[in-house]
Amino acid sequence: MGLRFLQGLGFETYYLMPYVIYMEVIPPERRALAVMLSFLAWTFGMCFSALVAWLVPNWTQLAIISIIPALLGFLYWRYLPESPRWLLAKGKVQQCADVLLRVSKGNGVTNLSRVEVEAQLQVMMLHLPVDQPLTTVKDYPKLRVRAVALIFMS
Fold it and tell me: Is this structure's pTM higher than 0.70?
């Protein structure tokens, strides 16, 4: 029960963030396929979990079995690259260039130079919006209401 509670605490971050990061680095022409495959995997997983629930007689055993995919995903988490947008927003241009060069190599683009990528990232940094603290939510009533609604929905 405690493991299921811990799994539930980090559900949004744990399951949604890798999806968002992969959508950042997947080429636009392959994004639709990636989205369809992820939904297909989710559907098969839910069908499989119903089968497992039917086969396992005890709810505590089912809870232990259902935590296994989350543990495997947790082990995979460290291989997930940082978000290039987040790295750039935090001023980590060299790390952002590393991620982008690695992703571009995986996508078959090999004619990029590190100097060229870092120069483009420096230009992009000039046009980034200024970070605002979370406390600015109180200054915008509609945003405050939506934030509270999202907290309760999750």
Answer: no
Residue found by looking up tokens 């950042």 in the block? 24
Distance of alpha carbon 92 from alpha carbon 127, whole angstroms: 15
**Domain enclosing residue 33, as ranges:** 1-80
Please spell the DSSP secondary structure of 90-106, one letter per residue.
Answer: TT-HHHHHHHHHHHHHH
**CA–CA separation, 149 vs 154, rounded Å?**
9
- Answer yes or no: do 68 and 88 share one domain: no
Average pLDDT value for residue range 68-78 = 76
pLDDT in tens, 83-111: 888 888 888 989 999 988 988 887 788 88
Are residues 145 and 113 both part of a single domain? Answer: yes
